[in-house]
Amino acid sequence: MRIATWNVNSVTVRLPRLTAWLESTAPDVVCLQELKCSAEAFPAEPLRELGYEAVISADGRWNGVAVLSRVGLAAPVTALPDAPAYDGVREPRAVAATCGGIRVWSVYVPNGREVGHPHFEYKLEWLDALRKAAEQEAGGELPFAVLGDYNIAPTDADVWDRSRFDGATHVTEAERAALAALRETGLADVVPRPLKYDQPFTYWDYRELGFPKNRGMRIDLVYGNAPFEEAVSDAYVDREARKGKGPSDHAPVVVDIAV
DNA sequence: ATGACTCAATGTTTGAGA
């Protein structure tokens, strides 16, 4: 089975690239983030024509997540239990489903904006809610993984120049401690191989030639439990999908698993 | 070449992304 995660930065704008990528890559399950559309505007029909069912959580302008599957969608969940609200709103940042014998969550972790900003506290609280949800599922026999845009670089090697990140979000001890707590539920970081260069970056800023200069970050992660991790046969970042006209600023992470 | 930001709505500017 082939499973992928991709922050598409607007599923409506990216639809032509998404459908072409689905046809060329042929994943069985895809976790999407940053749909940036209402539930009504989600392009369910063109995806169905390619054989994919979808479970989504979306409410308009920002955020929005989905799981696409062509191997079944069972036991869908469309919100993270006990997720904190921000400005009084519970944002659509997590969905789950069981697809072909694998339990997956698609997550879009809050950005945090700046250290000390209320959004940063929100990020940490949201990650704690995710940890509690993972505790319920990570210990089972079923292959289980939380895939998505975590907005955290797990190590200093996961950013292109650590000295540029002093005082910034995405690299702090508090954020990395939240990731460590998530791993302690029984999950491991499935690190993909890069197709070029040494580091498997998954995001490059649109500005200032970020991609051509490979000024990237690894912030799109696959956290799998033992049955999942032990079945992984390959994992890579599809940087080809970041090239050309009109890409997302994130590249997909693709995992092949012997299930 | 991989090329100098992009997206959606609050819409001709703003907020967010990271």
UniProtKB/TrEMBL annotation:
PROSITE patterns: AP_NUCLEASE_F1_1, AP_NUCLEASE_F1_4. It comes from Streptomyces oceani. InterPro entries: AP_endonuc_1, AP_endonuclease_F1_BS, Endo/exonu/phosph_ase_sf, Endo/exonuclease/phosphatase, ExoIII-like. The record marks D220 as: Important for catalytic activity. One of its GO terms (molecular function) is DNA binding. This is Exodeoxyribonuclease III. Keywords: Hydrolase, Magnesium, Manganese, Metal-binding. Mg(2+) binds at N7, E34, D149, N151, D249, H250. Probably binds two magnesium or manganese ions per subunit. Residues 4-250 form the Endonuclease/exonuclease/phosphatase domain. Belongs to the DNA repair enzymes AP/ExoA family.
